[in-house]
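User: Please predict structures.

Assistant: First:
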Amino acid sequence: MIRRIRIWACAALLAPLAAHAAPLTIYAAMGYDQAAVDAFTRATGIAVKLVHLSTGPLLARVQAEGARPQWDVLWFDGNLPMHEFAAQRRLACGWTPPAHYTAQGSALLPASRCYYPVGVTYTGVMLVDGARLPPTARPRNWADLLAPRLRGRVGMDNPAISGPTYPLVAGVLQADGDAAGQRYFAALKRNGLRVYPTNSVTLRALQFGQIDVALVQSSAALGFARSRPQLQVVMPQPTTLLPSDLAIGAGVTGAQLAQARRFVAFVLSPQGQRALQQGDPAADSNYVPLVAGVAPLPAVAALHAGRALALSAAQWGPREGAVDAWFTAHVVR
């Protein structure tokens, strides 16, 4: 009886501490992250501090914080930076979330279990303005972008600023080889390629007639075309897979670690996936789910990805800085 009283007393003391636990801090660059956080807090009562940034500034902030991270959970598009953070021992590894992954999701889950795939989009999708380009002038593949009729009419994001754009460049280099891939981007520049900071700026350039073709992420292309019937989404061959991933910080322990794992598990549950698909239908909600039994939104289901490249994180993660520097020196300038 005395032992039961002691256990009850300990539980009573711990309850107020749990109620006043520090909020879970999440650094995220997903358009639906606020919707996911709100749904998670409603379901669990766990408070969350969300820091929402675009991918480039988020990665820069993580690098700047270095050994004194202010985050518990990271969430953004691209497994290449995640691989590098894991190699730098910034991520908690070895835990497998209780998710029912599809075959594709299982293939994207790293053996190290340092980060966890959530969904897939495609990078390098062409969004074409059919009102300004007749059917015979519309590009269907990468070589078509070099046509004289498209001189100065093609735009893309800067991979040194837009995190999801580095995989686009890496995909071309992987498909063609480094030398041929670099020659291709140099030829695009000679044909008047316009380079903008991010998806939103590139899409505005398309909207206001500065360009006729935008090379952007598939989720952004589908969302932007949703209310603009003159825009056509073209999937060139090959396109490159772009997984979105969650990770937990290496220094997260105790109650914070338990809460972080609950968040990952929630996002990878059917309930969490519903929050993601409803949170940003104009952009990031247009992803291919990696959770079994969760269907993509209709516009995503209608895409024909064909041959899609899956980049090796171990090969292309360490090369990001060098490739971005080359692109800046030879294509942007």
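Second:
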Amino acid sequence: MADMTHSPSSSSLAPADDLAKGQIRQNNEAQIVAAAERVFAGAGFGGATMAAIAEAAGLPKANLHYYFGSKQALYSAVLARTLSDWLQPTHGIVPEADPRTAIERYIRDKMALSAQRPHASKVFANELLHGAPVLKTLLATELHDLVQAKAAVIEGWVVAGRMAPVDPVHLFFTIWAATQTYADFDVQVCAVLGRPELGDADQARATEHVVTLLLRGCGLHLP
């Protein structure tokens, strides 16, 4: 009788193997980028080194060069990831959405990102303070186009009487300023509040304040 048992072919194992390798790569890249945020925030681009980032990530320096090639490429990756994560919550700002729900969700998500990844916010702010040499083109194209599209949605809500008249583009500027200040100027905020650092209760209080203030300015009443 012929032996009906057989071992899995290499082709059947390949997809699972590729998936595992892809997950490892994704995890390592996220670990490196998170470490790079901390180092770039503290030392700036000029003062940061790949060795310091590797030490912060707990990975060999060779891994950084394998995944990103250079310090410039890693810096660009940090900025691109930050901008992408900040803009992701704007996807809820669509014509058919409830204005209060959509704008409140965006504000809360931005406040959460400032609390969870303050170093990323500081790296981004420092890039802008230096004239945005890496981000200038991206800001003038992708960011510009997205803000214009979302501003048109908000203008539609205003015209339809669904919220108070506001300048939709400047509303975005105000949201960015109000939410990112708790990361970019945390030293000032902590000094005034008499705290060594902002705790969960401080972040929650700040979030409710910013949400309430901005929604009232938009004529969107809280329940």
